[in-house]
Amino acid sequence: MKIEKSFQKINPFGGINFVIDAIRKSGLLQLFDNELGKRPPQSEYSYSDIIVDTFIVPFCNADCIEDLNEHISPYLSDIPNLKIANSDTVLRVLKSMKTEKVQVKSSKGNVYEINRNEKLNQLNINTLKHLGLIKEGHFYDFDFDNEHLPTEKYDTKVSYKKTKGYFPSMATIEGCPVFFENRDANMNVKTNQAATLKECFKLLKNNNIYINRGRFDAGSYTKEVVEVVAKKRKKSIV
């Protein structure tokens, strides 16, 4: 048996090159910078750089943004034109795009907080249109649901599943997310849902995207929600 020693640096994330190449060829980097604008002149990283860095984390099977520093960037430093910021920079830029929370009341008078980022929701729609995943003037089946996201962030609440997290609302078309709103984990799905759907339908209408069928689970079975949905679709399934 012949044993050969190799001193060549082994890259466990070599496959990320194909992902980055596909993103560049898609034209998404220009879209991100055009939609989000230019960062201050002294900034070393553009918005598109930061978004690509964020994409890299899950594609490299990492758990959090902090993994960029120690576990990812040392292996990707040789990729041409790839600028990997440190995790503090990425988190700071992402935080700069946040919107303030809004308080809403339930029918029983309980106060909850929601967060809706209209600019990023629009960017998401533009991204889907740019990639040809949804098209203006077409009718689509529309799905709406809430999903518990467990996390130990400082502002989380305890959900019905007895774990801390958030309980965001998400609308999808053909498996593609078209609207997102974050909500307190202890918030009932029916609370403020009609208002959320109105904002979602408004966004889709502004982008000339139309609803064929709306599909909802039992959490949407209220008179107010049904009335809102009935005006915006051809058919509804609850």
Summarize this entry quickly.
This protein is an alpha+beta fold and 238 residues long. Helices cover 37% and strands 20% of the residues.
In words, what does this structure look like?
The protein has 238 residues and is α+β, with helices and mostly antiparallel strands. Helix content is 37%, strand content 20%. The protein contains 8 helices and 10 strands. The protein has a 7-stranded mixed β-sheet. Strands 4-6-5 form a 3-stranded antiparallel β-sheet, with no helix packed on it. Helix 3 (47-59) packs across helix 5 (87-96) and helix 7 runs parallel beside helix 8. It is globular. The relative contact order is 0.10.
Question: Could you outline the blueprint of secondary structure elements for this entry?
Answer:
Elements: H1 16-26, H2 28-36, H3 47-59, H4 67-76, H5 87-96, E1 102-105, E2 111-115, H6 118-130, E3 139-146, E4 149-150, E5 157-158, E6 164-166, E7 169-173, E8 176-183, H7 193-206, E9 210-215, H8 223-230, E10 233-237
Parallel strand pairs: 3-9, 9-10
Antiparallel strand pairs: 1-2, 2-8, 3-7, 4-6, 5-6, 7-8
Shape: globular
Helix/sheet category: alpha+beta
The low-confidence parts are none
Our Rg estimate from Cα atoms comes to: 21 Å
Strand order of the largest sheet: 1-2-8-7-3-9-10
The biggest sheet, with number of strands, parallel, antiparallel or mixed sense and barrel status, is: 7 strands, mixed
Give the rounded overall mean pLDDT: 90
Total strand segments: 10
Whole-Å distance between the termini? 66 Å
Can you give the helix content as a percent range? Answer: 25-40%
Number of helices: 8
Order of helices and strands: HHHHHEEHEEEEEEHEHE
Work out the strand percent.
15-25%
